[in-house]
Fold these 2 entries.
Entry 1:
Amino acid sequence: MAMQYEFITRSPEESIALGEKIGAKLRAGDVIAYLGDLGAGKTTFTRGLAAGMGLDDLVTSPTFALVHAYGEPPLMLCHFDMYRIESEDELETTGFYDYPPEECVFAIEWSENIAGALPRNTIRITLERLGDAERRITIEGDERFADLRT
């Protein structure tokens, strides 16, 4: 059963710092489903995930490429943007199945477009704009995230 954890961040730097703490707890095979409107800070948060995973790649939005892969096996971060994907049937064309889950953490923006293709143990992270820089970040996941503090 998923547990829910809620945080308020007041700047992009605080969102990145929270992402780093989460990234440090991730392991190959984890799937993160982002939920949040355009401009909610999903890519900014992913910069923190990458840093927490020990990756020093420059994380950018995968909007036009559909996927950016960072790092190397045995632990990569595969950052997908499913904004233009209208159904699970279109996943074949995105490269989604080209990345081995045993070597990757999947971070998926616009995950609601492929909700039926996500595994049961998907970690859901909702980013909600409260102001220009303030965000409510809700994590639905397992007990690994119980001790996080911003």
Entry 2:
Amino acid sequence: MAGHSKWNNIKRRKEAQDAQKGKIFTKFGREIQIAVRTGGPDPETNASLKDAIARAKANNMPNSNIERSIQRAMGAGSDEQLEDIVYEGYGPGGVAVMVRCLTDNRNRTAGEVRHLFDKYGGSLGTDGCASFQFERKGSFIIEREAYPDEDTVFMAAMEAGAEDFQASLEGYEIICAPEDYTQLNSKLSPDYEFVDMSLGPIPITTVELKEPEQVEQMEKMIEKLEDCDDVQDVYHNWDA
């Protein structure tokens, strides 16, 4: 499994959360709402909702905000209709980028995403132009500071059904097949607190940027995309 910049994305999100928690909570609130509308309000029977709630809690979203998002999705206080769209393209140096959005205005969101690709040396492409460079996997992030014994975490991950385990100075990333995502969460969550968890695209190979200008452009593009109200997740194969 190729390495990627999961920790950099998490750090950016945490920094943004400290600066503007309301905006970050709005993004997770939208995630919860669309999960409720597609699968119902019970997390025990709606795996997408259970996952969305777990991700929200991992990012310190209060229970009251979570409950309010569920109620909004059930029709209490909002008639907002959100559409789940993924845009694909390339950043500077040929870095493949996928941008997942939840929006109530497809034209507005497409214009904003295209503008940021163009501004920072990239280009927005057509459906499928970048997704073939990714594969769908489950990912669980655990901080090393909280669980310093790498061997113990590794054994727990393997026994729970993990497909791959990557260790770094910051912590551990546990990778699993999509069909094992729920099982792994159930087995590990009683003993481990996740910094982040997701079921989505992970790059098959990575691209290294050697020109400082391209590095700066890529950093800015990711930062500005993640700052967009309609953008939920940014996936890329840049080896940062």
